[in-house]
Amino acid sequence: MAGFGRDRGDRGPGLVGALLVGISAAKALALAKNLPLVGVNHIAGHIYANRLVTELKFPLIALIVSGGHTELVHMPAHGVYRVIGETRDDAAGEAFDKVARVLGLLYPGGPEVDRLAAQAEAPVEFPRAWLEEDSYDFSFSGLKSAVMNYVHNAEQRGEIVNKADVAAGFQESVIDVLTEKAMRAVDAFAAKQLLVAGGVAANKGLRKRMEAAARERGVELVIPPLYLCTDNAAMIAAAGTIDFLMGKRADLSMNAHPGLSL
Amino acid sequence: MNVLAIDSSNLTMGVAVANETAVLGEFITNTKKNHSVRLMPAVERLLKDIEMAPDDLDRVAVAQGPGSYTGVRIGVTVAKTLAWALGIELVGVSSLEVLAQNGRHFPGYVVPLFDARRGQVYTGLYRAHQDRVLSVENDRIVPIADWADALAKLDAPVLFLGSDVDKHWATIQAAMGENAVKSSANDHYPRPSELAKLGIRRDPVPVHEFTPEYLQLAEAEAKWLARQERK
Lengths: 262, 231
Ligand SMILES: [Zn+2]
Description:
Helix content of chain A is about 45%, strand content about 15%.
């Protein structure tokens, strides 16, 4: 079985091209070796990265947070994905990168913001975007603007910005919303497991809060090790295996879907 | 020797299977749409129609560019993967040289060209020799006005080939007058069977070292390289 990923094409030039190369190679391999071909959704790959750590238990809730995605997915069974919430503007990881830039931190900004936040003394209070009362959707652009305004205003007044306090305030706001909505989904769908995946799952502040909230609720929390959080081929194989066993097959006209959703 | 020829480098998407004495089958479309979606089904269909299995192939010949950045990459990726997975030989042929073969009966110079945007063309200079055309001047990317001026100095008939010729015909004629010869429409499309024929004569290359021939870097790559140099 050939396993290749599909990715979102919204992270700069070259990605759609990379996708086409991967898919072309997979199709050629399938023909040459007379192998079945399975197309794997990139986000499903992130979710199934967790299967390399532990067996999945359904129903489950998966939170995928990275530079390209912020999705809350309800899975009643293997291979069934219901996207119950997603970002309406920036992805969580994108917000981290932008805020890091405003604070003059190195790229990638996520780990730097996380590291600085741990040193904060008095985190700055930033707004939380809860959206409509029952919504599982996310929005991070307002928060991002609030951080930018705060920093610019301070600079205009000639004040020195305490970067750690800004980083912590921003991160608290993101973590609050992610944790609260994920836990609300866990309750609503009586989830047996909560999976967190994607590059932002490496964030220590997020891990700590998720662990505490999951313990309080008695739901099993699964966060894969860092090397399985970021984009990797093993996660595509893990998801592809399930699709394969469920009898899903692609033919040689399989196309790239840069904006593919679950 | 059974050669599978693959060309998705430009407008034409073509696949063919040929041996030393015969063209067993050829599949060509001349529409810009979705080479990535249609290429592998075309290979599968052709092999099926000529009752051949992938294992019956001995060599893959691919049009290695110049041309569309994505199109070249798709063709080269498929060719390399097939050659590697089947354990057979791989050869690359200039996309311009393939197109130039359509002028093999012309008693003069043959110039294939593909539009390269911003007034430039991918092109080369060829001349018929027995059953094929041979390169006289290397393939290049050049402003069409400069190229037409240079060709005018040959002071001999030149046959222009390619579906982008019309786009530059006024410039060519202004520089060359009567020496510029336009081919009929069906000679403007490269034939994968010609690619297969050239591929049989060529020496195979190591699969893992084979790379496309863009003649220029893709815009994004060129910008990135320029940025790195400035650092
Ligand atoms: Zn990803």
